[in-house]
Design goal:
It contains 11 helices and no strands. By secondary structure, it is mainly alpha-helical. It folds into 2 domains: 63 residues, Orthogonal Bundle (Arc Repressor Mutant, subunit A), CATH 1.10.10; 157 residues, Tetracycline Repressor, domain 2 (Orthogonal Bundle). Helix 4 runs antiparallel to helix 5, helix 5 packs parallel to helix 8 and helix 5 crosses helix 10. It starts with 12 loop residues before the first helix and ends with a helix. 28% of the residues are buried.
């Protein structure tokens, strides 16, 4: 049997892909745990490799440095968040700014609960990255913020939101939702659904949802 290029003899392509995916998943899981437990400076590549169950050289095959590993972890998280928000908006008509804002808030609340570790790392450890990595991550941050800006700006233009300072309103709503990762306890008395409803209501107050529009939204939810 001829040897497959760049692969062990007799290993099917699907198995090779699965093995690569498993390696990446093991590294990602280990890095997330170590960074959360010890912080960026307290973490070591050697400890991450050991937690992932692989040799140091094997880990270096995937990531050239601890900084590259942190950047990859944060980038994957931000890409997931951006996709989560876009998917949420795709399910709401563009002529319904209140519904779109509610969808963004709900998606963000759920994301911050689902990925609390990455959210905490993004808030605390990004400052350890070099300029190039920060620039790459910032593109994803700006893309997500643009979604919020577009929804709130559209609501103001059509008179559904009456806030005088849309940019400040957007920053306030985003900051409130992002902070959930720092304090929310999934085992506590407030469910994720209830939390999302609370924060959607808070967001509507911040953007000054017009009373008539609020009444229409309530009827649409019944």
């Amino acid at each position: 049997m001829p040897q497959l290029a760049g692969s062990p003899i007799g290993v099917p392509p699907g198995a090779r892909a699965a093995r690569r995916a498993n390696s990446q998943d093991a590294i990602t899981d280990a890095a997330r745990e170590i960074f959360v437990e010890r912080g960026y400076h307290g973490a070591s590549i050697r400890d991450i490799a050991a937690r992932a169950g692989m040799s140091l050289s094997a880990l270096y095959y995937w990531h050239a440095s601890k900084q590259d590993l942190l950047a990859a972890l944060l980038a994957e998280s931000r890409q997931d968040y951006l996709l989560t928000c876009r998917t949420a908006l795709a399910g709401v008509a563009q002529d319904d700014p209140a519904g779109q804002l509610r969808a963004l808030v709900t998606a963000t609340v759920r994301y911050r609960v689902r990925r609390r570790a990455e959210s905490a790392l993004t808030a605390q450890e990004w400052r350890h990255l070099d300029v190039a990595h920060v620039a790459e991550l910032d593109q994803l941050r700006v893309a997500a913020s643009d979604l919020w800006t577009g929804v709130i700006g559209n609501g103001v233009r059509v008179g559904v939101f009456t806030c005088e300072h849309p940019d400040d309103a957007r920053r306030a709503v985003q900051a409130a939702c992002n902070a959930i990762a720092q304090w929310y306890d999934p085992s506590g008395p407030v469910s994720v659904d209830e939390l999302a409803e609370r924060y959607a209501a808070i967001a509507m107050r911040i953007v000054d949802l017009r009373p008539a529009a609020a009444a229409g939204a309530d009827q649409g939810n019944t």
